[in-house]
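Researcher: Good morning. I'm working through a list of sequences from a screen, and I'd like to move beyond sequence-only analysis. For each chain I'm collecting a predicted structure so we can compare shapes side by side. This is the next one on the list. No need for commentary yet; just the structure.
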Amino acid sequence: MSTVFSMMALLVMPLWFAMIFVPRARWTAALLRSPLVFLPIALVYAALVVPDLATVLPAVMRPELPQIAELLGTERGATIAWAHFLAFDAFVGRWVWNDAQERGISPWISGPILFLVLMLGPLGLALYLAVRSVGSPR
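Model: Good morning. Structure tokens for this chain:
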């Protein structure tokens, strides 16, 4: 699990690099044009979670802290959760990047926000929504 955990970042790091450091490059737009950019990490997630659906589904369908803590307290559970975080943070990051491009928000503003989305997903999203609300409504 340790190797899978470490290698998963390689699937999303090119997206983050492009969005943060070269947001206006043509190849960044080409890379992020399709939502299929999330397919590799989604496939890793599926490969990890499907064999454990009998354990995972009951825990997430009726979530209770002790069962979720037990699930996440294993290397496999933490790796599954990490794949989930990586996939959804990247998806939110792509939305922020795309929306910032459409609204003409400076990369000097969107770049640090995207970094925050990468590191602390919901906080980055909340900050972006606050910044977005200051601009002209669409």
